[in-house]
Amino acid sequence: MTAVAQSNSSALDSAALDDADPLAEHTAKFVREGDVVAYLDGNSLGRPLAASVDRLADFARNSWGGQLIRGWDEEWYDLPLTIGDELAAATLGAAPGQTFVGDSTTVILYKLIRAAVDARPDRGVIVTDTDNFPTDRYIIEGIAAECGKAVRWLTPDPIAGVTPEQVADAVGGDTAVLVLSHVAYRSGFLADAREITRIAHDAGALVLWDLCHSVGSVPVELDAWGVDLAAGCTYKYLNGGPGSPAFGYVRSKLQGALRQPIQGWMGSAAPFEMGPGYSPHPGIRGFMSGTPAVVGMLAMRDMLSLIDSVGMPAVRAKSKALTAFAVELIDQLLVPRGARLSSPRDPALRGSHVTVDHESFAEVNARLWKRGIIPDFRRPHGLRLGLSPLSTTFAEVELGVRAIAEELG
After folding, report:
1. Are 298 and 82 in contact (CB under 8 A)?
2. What is the pTM of this model?
3. pLDDT by residue for the chain (409 residues), tens digit each?
4. For residues 109 and 233, is the Cβ–Cβ distance under 8 A?
5. How many of the other CB atoms lie within 10 Å of CB of 319?
6. Is 255 strand, coil or helix?
7. Residue 12 CA to chain centroid, in angstroms?
């Protein structure tokens, strides 16, 4: 292993950037235990906030331990919608009454895509792209098979991502629903959601956006963009913890027209009547299914409060600065060692992660983890640097990229 020579300008840059960062004070609010010295995987699992540790302990002792079953009447029954509205206000640009928390991303995607397909019985095509996240693609293939529909595949440039022009060529009078990711999970490409939504609507199609890699790091304006449906996870930039429940968004004017397919008791009109037949609850509650994961919802409340206090514009500014600094270091330290940037170079065209490729990265990643340097490896040979704006420092980014360079030799 060859040591990497220090660059005075870059070293000064990271210190200066941290000193000038208006959000720097917030990094100390996150738990930093163990041997990790550079955490660059915030787009897979966010660090916990210290406030969330306290919240969970208090819940176990007092709400769960003290109130027991009475907690359902006092708070828990409404919690999926209460937190849904908090999430919508802080990160989605959505009015109340359109967002719920519950289920996994996979289950929510199934429910919403299937509901959209059923609402367009005379249209036989679902449009998505070949580089979409595997869950999205698998669900779409399954629904198409169930319902006798076809899938029309867009093939985007692996870095440039899906463009409005590609969408315009793909959607038409046969399109039931368009399903895309707002931020591409590999490259970090940020799609033009407003324009793509407009194009799909002009063709009479419904639109679902997967927000897993954008919520909490990129400003989202679902109401202003006219989005029909959206889903996303909460354990990345919303720091809800491993397996924390996902969220679903259904535009208010569609809630009476769509009927979700997993008819569980918590989505019924009168769940505690235990009636003989299912009738959906009016409004967004009708898109719920089973008993919500109350404990799993709690941690994200602290992150939502923090995001709300600083504002998404400030979060986005920090995100762009972090990824720009990472690209500068990649160009300086990794490209000369045979690596290649696999994300857009324009910060305005990417989310909060960048991907760099090298044929040795599978082995390099394993060695980095032993050193407490934690990026995310994506096959066949990509390292994603997921930079969570409120918890990641510029010094961490520099330490991490320098360690990658050292391992490359």
Report:
1. no
2. 0.96
3. 333 334 434 445 899 999 999 999 999 999 999 999 999 999 999 999 999 999 999 999 999 999 999 999 999 999 999 999 999 999 999 999 999 999 999 999 999 999 999 999 999 999 999 999 999 999 999 999 999 999 999 999 999 999 999 999 999 999 999 999 999 999 999 999 999 999 999 999 999 999 999 999 999 999 999 999 999 999 999 999 999 999 999 999 999 999 999 999 999 999 999 999 999 999 999 999 999 999 999 999 999 999 999 999 999 999 999 999 999 999 999 999 999 999 999 999 999 999 999 999 999 999 999 999 999 999 999 999 999 999 999 999 999 999 999 999 9
4. no
5. 25
6. coil
7. 32
User: Considering its fold, how many domains does the chain have in total?
Assistant: 2
Give the total residue count for the chain.
Answer: 409
Peptide bond before 276: cis, by omega within 30 degrees of 0?
A: no
Distance between CA atoms of residues 234 and 237, nearest Å: 7
For residue 189, the SS3 value is strand
Instruction: Judge if 376 and 241 occupy the same domain.
Output: no
Catalytic residue numbers, as ranges: 133, 210, 235-236, 384
Q: Based on the number of CB atoms within 10 Å of its own CB, is 370 exposed (0-12), middle (13-18) or buried (19 or more)?
A: exposed
**Which residue spans within 194-258 are E strands per DSSP?**
206-210, 229-232, 247-250
Q: How many angstroms separate the CA atoms of 48 and 33, rounded?
A: 10
Q: Is residue 68 part of a domain?
A: no
Parent domain of 89: 75-308
Q: Give me the torsion for CA of 244, 250, 256, 257, rounded to 10°.
A: -120
274 with 362, same domain: the answer is no
Residue 100, φ and ψ in degrees, nearest 5? -130, 155
Residue 369 belongs to domain with CATH number: 3.90.1150.10
Give residue for tokens 């793909």: 170
**Calpha distance 128→82 (Å, rounded):** 32
Q: Can you read off the two tokens belonging to residue 380? A: 């066949």
